[in-house]
Amino acid sequence: MVIFVAIAVVLVLATLLGVLWPLWQQSRGLVLACVLALGATVFALYHMVGTPQAIGVAALAPPATPQTMQEAVTRLEAELVRDPAQPEGWRLLGKSYAMLDRLPEARDAYARAAKLLPDDPDVLVETAQARLFADPQRMLDAQSVAMLQHALELQPQHQRARWLLGVWHRQNNRAADAASTWEPLLAQVDAKTAATLRVQVDAARTDAGLAPLPAAITAVAAAPAVDTPGNPSANALTVNVTLDPDFASRVRLRGDASVFVIARIPNGPPMPVAAQKHALSELPLTITLDDNDSPMPTQKLSALKDVEVFARISATGDAMRQEGDIDSKPVRVTLPTKLPVELVIGAAD
């Protein structure tokens, strides 16, 4: 009887999820009230006509939290098979595939999200970027460019869309167009980013036969974003990643190795709350981790008080630890903080 009841409960919950999901998105309080009322009614009816003593007292345990990225991806895949009309689900799946280095699958997942949200500039840019990474030649195609242009029509200040359009011009030997596309970014980014970007702009201008920009332009930067709940920059972390010189001289590292920069809950599950993947050749590296780098919708960096941050060299390109991977010493950080996190891979403990 206990097994029968458990199966019945699962079937009822699955049915309710399908029926009440649209209402849940609009009024969660109403859905909870309906579920409680239905439960009370069923309980009373069963006591009137059923056999209450046949039911065991053991509670049904909720599903366990995924302990690995692959487990979380498998669950998400199953959910999207059941209900494919979830753009944020496809978007999250695309991000998860990218972290697992499953780039063609990331491209396809983002394409499903873009089909459901054709006028969301962030989704359009993420989809174009996924197409870029999935291309063996790392080239932006016509469809990607159309998405980036539409994103800029919808949001003219979209920094990543403008950057990628400049990359497309550069790939097609239009140095002057690349420079003019990137130049407005100098007034939108912080001073450190502007200084790095200025090098790219001036290089493009030189290739186009133009003079470098006046020095004063480098000093122009946008006002800092306000860290408010829901703002991806809230609790953002600046992270500097370097290789220990002695370690680098002693150890031969694969040139195609990847570097993951990961923030996770201290003493919690191994799933990251924010992560970025870079090439080993990019070291030394300075990045910013924020909510845009979160692979899990229920765990955001902006909602945490403390995180553990570390960097990992992976020969397989998988964010989850594999044999032979090399981790930096983890650093525990209380949020928010304006100080950069310093990670040194290969340093002696």
Polypeptide structure, described:
It contains eleven helices and eight strands. The protein is α+β, with helices and mostly antiparallel strands and 349 residues long. Strands 2, 3, 5, 6 and 7 form a five-stranded antiparallel beta sheet that branches. A three-stranded mixed beta sheet has the order 4-1-8.
Summarize the topology.
Layout: H1 2-26, H2 28-49, H3 69-82, H4 87-99, H5 103-116, H6 121-134, H7 142-154, H8 159-171, H9 175-182, H10 191-207, E1 237-243, H11 245-250, E2 258-264, E3 274-279, E4 285-289, E5 306-314, E6 326-327, E7 331-334, E8 341-345
Parallel strand pairs: 1-8
Antiparallel strand pairs: 1-4, 2-3, 2-5, 5-6, 5-7
Structural class of the helices, strands and pairings? alpha+beta
* Poorly predicted regions: 1-33, 40-49, 54-59, 218-230
Total strands: 8
Radius of gyration: 25 Å
* CA distance, first residue to last residue: 57 Å
What string gives the helices and strands in order?
A: HHHHHHHHHHEHEEEEEEE
Task: Look at the structure and give the mean pLDDT.
Answer: 78
- Which range best describes the helical content: under 10%, 10-25%, 25-40%, 40-55%, 55-70% or over 70%? 40-55%
Please count the helical segments.
11
Q: Quick one: biggest sheet?
A: 5 strands, antiparallel
Indicate the overall shape: globular
In percent, how much strand structure appears in the residues? Answer: 5-15%
Keywords:
disordered N terminus, 8 strands, globular, 11 helices, 349 residues, alpha+beta
What's the quick description here?
By secondary structure, the chain is an alpha+beta fold. The protein has eleven helices and eight strands.
